[in-house]
C-alpha cells in the first residue's frame, strides 16, 4: 500500500477537523486509552437528562405542566438581567431603561406590567440586576447602576410598586440575591467592594461584608458577641438587629495604618453574590481581582474561606441546586470552573474553556453536570455544557443578535426551558429540543500517524463493526491491532461510549526512522560554500545508505557549482569525471541485474529509476557548460582553486571508490530499507526531461540493457570536451535546470521525504526559491519543523526556522520563546537578568560544584533542584551519584 | 572615505555585559577619531569648492555623533559608559574640536533639575528599570526620568510601551513608529515626533513618508481620519469609521491591526499630554537639546531665553511662593477639609435624582468654559510635525456638541468588562498590560497630600478621573458630580482641561498655579492620572465602535 511509504517517512497526517480534540501525539502510539476518550464526542450528550425530546414535562412541583415553544419577543430597550417568578409563568426583564414583567404563555410573551413609572425616570430605575423572590411571588429586588438597591412589592395597590430604597452602597450595585428560604433577607454586592445584607423589615442594612476582610483563621480573632445563636432562624431577634450593627462599624475602625480614618480602603469590586441553596448561612461572593470568598452570614468580620478562582474578574457564580458545595464560577479569562467547596481547600473539579468571557452561569435543573453560560462580549450564543465534556458544548442557542445578558431556567425542576434576555432588545424562550447540538456536526472519526509510522484510527464502534468483515488495507507487514475502549466505572458515560480504536503498527524494530534523525543532525545547511555543503550532505546520505539522495546532492553540486572560472585544463578534468560517472552507472546496472532476490518487477522499476537519474545526470553535465556564462557574469564568491581542490578530493572518493564499496551492499539496502527508490515510478515524471525520458523508455520491455545502450552514446557525447559552448548557450534558457530542480523537490516532498526538499531549498537558497510558490515552501517548512520537533531535534528545527525565508515560518521563532525564570529564594519572577534577583539581591543560580554564578547553560536536578554549570555537573555525576550540594539526593543525569 | 567603515554602531552599548560595552565604546572612539582626523586634513589642505559640501556634511555627521555621546555621558544608566563618553568628549575637545553641551535644565522645563532623580543616584529597583529601558531603546528618555517619580507605574508603562513597539504584533515595526508620529503630531508634540522619526528610520522606514501623510501608503492615510477624531472628539467615532477602515479592498486593515493601531494612537495622544503637561524638554541628542556654542559670559544668551530662562523663572516662582505661602497652605487645608466633609455628610445629605443627573450636565457644561485665556509661550511646531498638522480640526467641547450625542454610560460599556475582552481577543496580552497600567495609575497612592501624611486620597483621585471622563461625555451612574466642584478648584480644572484636550497650550504658569503647595512628584502623579484617564476614554469610544461594527 502507499501508506507504508509515507508512514515510513514519519510524516504525520491527520484526518478530520483538528479542533475536535484530536491531540497531536508526540510519541509512539502505545495503547488506545489516550485516544479513546477523545472520541467520546459521539456519545449522546444528554444521557443523564430526562426526556429530552419532550417539551411537555411533568414537574415535581404540584404536577403542573409547562408547555411552550421556542419564541421571542421584542423589548423596547436592551435588557441587563432577567429573573423568573417561582410559578414559572412570569419573567421580569430589567435594563437601563426597561423594567417590565412578561407573562409566558403557550405561544408568546405578553407584557403584564411596566414597573417603570413616573414622568422623569430616575437612575434608581436603571437596573444592573433584578431578582424575583423564590418564596414570595410579589417580591422583587433590583440593583441600580447608581448604587441603590430597590425592592418592589407587586401587591401594592398603587401604580408605583416601589417598596423600599436602600442607598448604602457608594458605587454601582452589580448583584442582588434573595435568601432561598428566608422571606426577608436580601444580599447585595457592589462595585465599592462591599456586600450588604438587608432585612426588608428594616430601613437599612443589618450587616456589611468587606471584600478586604481577611480569611477566618488568618486575621486576629475578635470578640464574638453572638456566639452560637442562630439569629436568622429566630426572626424576632433578627429584626432587632442591633447586635449586628456593632459589626458594621467594627472592621472600619481597625483598618491597617496608612488608611484614612474616615473611609475604608478601596477594595476590589464585588461582581456576584449568591446564597448557598443547601447551607443556610453560607453565601459566596466573587471579585474583580479573581478571588472568590465564602462567607457565613453571621460573621461579617471575616470570610470563611478565600481562594483565587480566575485570572481577572470573576463575573458570576452559581451554586449547584443539588450537590452541596458545588460552585460554578465564570470569569473574564473565558473559563467556567466548578469547585468543590466541601473539602478543606476548594478543589477544582471541572474546567470548561469557552471562547469569550463568561458573563453568567446557571446550572441546569435536573441535570447534574449541565450548566448554561453566556458571554459578555463578541459571542452572542448561549451554551449548555456538560462539565465533563469541556470541549464541545452539549447544546447551543443561537437566537440572539447581540450579547446575551441574562439567562434563567424557567422552572427549577424543568431542564428543557431556558429564558434569556439580550442587548439586542429581545426576550427569548429556548426549548431544548430546538437547540443546535454541535456534537452532531462533529466528525466522530480520528486518524493519527505515530512518529514511527504507526497509524491509529478511531471511530464509532458501530462503524468499525460494520466494516470488520473487510480486510484492513495494509500490506502484510502491518499488524492491525484493535483496542476496545476500556470502560471506566467512574466514568458516568460507561456503556454509552462506543468508540473503537485500531492501531496499525509498523514492523517491529523502531530504528526505521533512525536515518531521519541522523540525517537531520548531520546535514550542513549553511555557513559554507554551496559546493562544500552539497558534498558534505551527499557524504552523509551515502553513509546512511541513501544513495539516491546522495546522488541528488552530488548532482546539485554539479549543476550549481560548475567551476566556470576554471582554466581549461581543469575543466577537462572535471568533464572527464562526468564521463566516468556515466561509466560507473552502467556498472551499477549490471550489478543490479545480476543481483538475486529481486523480483522482476522491482528490477524493472529500479532500472527505470536509474534511467531517470541518468537523464538528470545528462542534464547536469550540460549545465556544466551553460552555467559557465552565468558564473562568469555573477562572479562566483567561491575561490576557484578551493573549489577545484574539493572537486578532486570528493569526486574521487565518490566515483572511484563507490563501485567497490557501496555496490555490493546495494541489493541488501534495497531490501532492508524502507525502499524509497522503489517508489520512484509512482510519482509523475518531471516535465522537464520528459522527452528524453520517453526516448529512453521506449524500449521499455527490453529492459535495462536497452536503456543503457540507448543512453550511453548520448552520455558520452555530452561529456566530451569537444561540445561547443555556444551551441548550448543559445539553446538552453539559463534557468533550464531550476525547473528540473523544482520538480525534483516536489518529487521528494510528494514521496514523503520532506527533509530532502527543505534541505535542498535551504542550501540552494535564492537559486531555486523563486521557482517554488511561497505556500508550498511554507508547507514543506512547517511539515519538516513539525517532524523535527516530534523527534525532539530542537536545535535542528531551530536552525531550519532560522534559515527559512518564509515569513510565516520565521515568525515561529518570534513567538513564545520567552523563558521565564523565578528566583529560587523569593519565588518572584526575575525580570532583568537570569541570574540575579532584583528583589532579594541574591544570585539565584549558583553552581553547586564551583559555587559561582551560572550564566548561560544551567542544568539542575528536577528532584532536588540543585544544579550548576553543565560541564561541572556532568563531571561530578561521573564520579558520584549524589547531589553535589550535599542534600543527599540521588541525582540522575540523562 | 568609505561610509560603512565609519558607520557607528550604538547597539553594543545596550548590552548588560560591561566588556561588550567597553569594546563598543572603543570602536566609537576610533571612529570619531578617524572622522576628526579626516576633517582636520580637509581643513589643512586647500580644497576645491565641491569639497566644501562634503566637509560640512561630514562635520554634521561628527556633530551628531558628539551629541549622542553627550547624551550618553549624561543619561546612560551604566556608569562605565557615562565616564568613558565624557572622557572621549574631553579628548576630542583637546584636539580642538568644538563639543556640544546640554541646553535647558534637565528633563523637564517645569520641574527644577535638582528635584529630579539624577542618573547614577538611583536605587537598585530604578536602576533595573533604567537598564531595561536603555537596553530596549538605546536611550533613557526624559519622559522616563520624570516618570521615575513613580517607579511602580513606570515599570508597567515601559513594559506596555515595549510590547506595543517592539514585541510580536500585527503591525510591522515601521508602521508602529509611523502611527506614533501621526498621533503625536496631532498635538504638535515635536518631542515625541522627533524621537519616533529617529526610531522610524532606524527600523528601516521610508524617509519619504515623513514628508507628510500623503506620502505614506494609502492604508496609513486612511487611518488619518480616525486619528483626528480620536484625538479631539472621540465621541464622534461611529462604526462607519471602523467599517471604512476594514473594508477598503487592498488597503483595508484587519481587526487585529486596527486594534493595535488604536492602542498606539491612544497611547501617543495621551503621552503627548504628558509631555506637555510636565514640560518635557527636548532630548539631549535631538535638535534643541544641545548647543555647540560655548556658554556666554552673562550666562544667558538669546537661545536660553526661548527655552524658558531658568534663573529668572525660579526667582519669579520663589517670590510668588513667598507671598502666597500662607494662601496656598490654606488651599491644602481647605481641600482636606472638603474631603472630610464629603466623606462625612455623604450618608446624610442625599441629593435627589434629578439633581444628580443635572450635576453631570452642569459639570459637563462648565468644563466648556474652563479654558485658559493666556496663550503665551506657544511652542512652534518643528519640521516633521508640520507636515501632519491639520489645525482645522481640534477639540470641540463635548457639551456644545453633546446635544445629539448620547452620554456614554460606563455601566453599559466599561473597560473591565468589555474593552479588555475585546483588546485581548484581537491583540493578545495587550489587554492585560493596559489593564495593569490603568489599575496602577488609578490606585497609585502614597497616602500623602502635600505636607500631610496618612490621607485617603481615593476621593480626590476619583474626582480627577471622573472629571476627565466627564469632559469626554462619559458618565458614571454611581458618581455624584457635585464632588468635582467641591474638590477641584478653577486653576486645577484649567490645567486638567488644557493638558487633556489641548496639551500644546500648557504653560509653565498653568503648571505652577495649581496646587501650589504640592510636591512635584504629586503633580506628576496627577499627570499620570490624566493621561491614563484620557487613554481609557479614547479607547472606550474606539472599542465601542469596533464592538458595534462586529455585532
TrEMBL record, chain A:
It holds the Pfam family WD40. InterPro entries: WD40/YVTN_repeat-like_dom_sf, WD40_repeat_CS, WD40_repeat_dom_sf, WD40_rpt, WDR24. One of its GO terms (molecular function) is zinc ion binding. GO terms for cellular component: cytosol; GATOR2 complex; lysosomal membrane. WD repeats lie at residues 166-208, 307-349. SMART domains: WD40. GO terms for biological process: cellular response to amino acid starvation; cytoplasmic translation; negative regulation of TORC1 signaling; negative regulation of translational initiation; positive regulation of macroautophagy; positive regulation of TORC1 signaling; positive regulation of translational initiation; protein K6-linked ubiquitination. Gene3D superfamilies: YVTN repeat-like/Quinoprotein amine dehydrogenase. Keywords: Metal-binding, Repeat, WD repeat, Zinc, Zinc-finger. It comes from the Eukaryota. The keyword Transcription does not apply. Catalytic component of the GATOR2 complex, a multiprotein complex that acts as an activator of the amino acid-sensing branch of the mTORC1 signaling pathway. The GATOR2 complex indirectly activates mTORC1 through the inhibition of the GATOR1 subcomplex. GATOR2 probably acts as an E3 ubiquitin-protein ligase toward GATOR1. In the presence of abundant amino acids, the GATOR2 complex mediates ubiquitination of the NPRL2 core component of the GATOR1 complex, leading to GATOR1 inactivation. In the absence of amino acids, GATOR2 is inhibited, activating the GATOR1 complex. Belongs to the WD repeat WDR24 family. This is GATOR2 complex protein WDR24. It comes from Saimiri boliviensis boliviensis (Bolivian squirrel monkey). The lineage of its organism: Eukaryota, Metazoa, Chordata, Craniata, Vertebrata. The gene is WDR24.
TrEMBL record, chain B:
Keywords: Cytoplasm, Oxidoreductase. Pfam families: PA26. It is found in: Cytoplasm. It comes from the Eukaryota. GO terms for biological process: cellular oxidant detoxification; cellular response to glucose starvation; cellular response to L-leucine; cellular response to leucine starvation; negative regulation of cell growth; negative regulation of TORC1 signaling; positive regulation of macroautophagy; reactive oxygen species metabolic process. Its main location: cytoplasm. Residues 39-59 are annotated as: Disordered. Belongs to the sestrin family. This is Sestrin 1. It comes from Saimiri boliviensis boliviensis (Bolivian squirrel monkey). The gene is SESN1.
